[in-house]
Write a structure and sequence with these properties.
By secondary structure, the protein is an all-alpha fold. 65% of the residues lie in helices and 0% in strands.
């Protein structure tokens, strides 16, 4: 049975809420594993030294 647009939007909203619970943990792990990961996540400052 196909989902209605409203059902998909509610599910999307619920999944975003669940994902937000984990975002800080993922960011912390990424910082420990890949300290320069900010560059790949688009948070690097343009012109910043990347060495």
């Amino acid at each position: 049975m196909p989902f209605t647009a409203d059902e998909l939007l509610r599910r999307h909203s619920r999944l975003l809420t669940e994902r937000n619970l984990w975002e800080s943990h993922w960011r912390e792990v990424a910082q420990l594993v890949l300290p320069r990961s900010d560059f790949f996540q688009g948070r690097a400052v343009p012109g910043d030294n990347r060495t």
